[in-house]
Amino acid sequence: MEVENHTSLSQFLLLGLSEDPDLQSILFGLFLSMYLVTVLGNLLIILAVSSDAHLHSPMYFFLSNLSFVDICFISTTVPKMLVNIQAHRKDISYLECLVQTYFFIMYGGVDHFLLTIMAYDRFVAICHPLHYTIIVNPRLCVLLVLMSWLIMFWVSLLHILLLNQLTFSIGTEIPHFFCDLAQLLKVATSDTLVNNIFLYMVAALMGIFPVTGILFSYSQILCSSMRTSSSVGKYKAFSTCGSHLCVVSLFYGTAFGVYLSSAVTHSSPRTVIASVMYTVVTPMLNPFIYSLRNKDVKGALGRLLSRATFGHSWITNLRTKWRLPILKLLL
Length: 331
Description:
The chain is mainly α. It has a single domain, classed as Rhopdopsin 7-helix transmembrane proteins. It has helices at 21-51, 58-87, 94-127, 132-135, 138-163, 181-187, 193-227, 231-264, 268-293, 295-330; strands at 3-4, 11-14, 91-93, 168-169, 173-174. It has a three-stranded mixed β-sheet. Residues 4-8 and 326-331 have low confidence and may be disordered.
């Protein structure tokens, strides 16, 4: 088998979800609609939080950041897949593959950190309500978000620098719909020991610390709620955490399912289908989970849409009001 290094390798071949021509058109329509729903839903969350003074709090600041990351996360993988399906192509250049891998790792990692930060925010709000505004102040909120981006910037960069040292055979096929780091390491022709050690080390740290932080936060929330005699207080505590718990379960459940299934079964089709869940479905469902389960978000979205409707009707009335005089003037 002929081998080329990164300096002369021009492209990889993404095998995608299916090679059936009839299924390709269905997949294109399905993923395009899911992508548009995801972008629109998360944009509405960002606009609702930024435009409504009632939502100018740490919890919704983190939520708007999560929505922004979800838009970036899905935009890393789906648009390229849609272009390839529409053009009946499978290729992706070596540079595009590295860029896609870099941003996929970074946005996925920031998602992990934001979910952990949001759990900590709920822990302080419920367990230490009197000190909430002092502990979770605006400066800390910005610092936590910036630290998440900074850590993942360097982690992703190290992954790419190590990946750039590997060699691949000509016409390397990646059994996936995007350049997943684990799949790239499997198809490399050179020694990937260092890459795998770093990958497992980062995965362990990213798995242990965020998940431990989330579990600790919710164990404390549960204990605090059980000590509360008021049923109204218990309901309020669990209602504010319900949306976040749904998102955490969906994100971590599908992500861990992908890597456990790939490690045990080595079945590429199953791994690819499972990957769709956390790369496409989870970012799409997040806005619905938060808007349907949160009265404040629903109220803000309602006010936002009503303002948009009022603005549209005002412009329409203005056009109607001035159309006749302008026509008379022209005639």
